[in-house]
Amino acid sequence: MRDRLPYREWSEPTVPLAHMLAVARESKKMTLRDLEKATGISNALLSQIENGRVKEPSWRNVVKIAKALDLNLERLAACR
Question: Is the pLDDT of residue 73 over 70?
Answer without folding.
Answer: yes
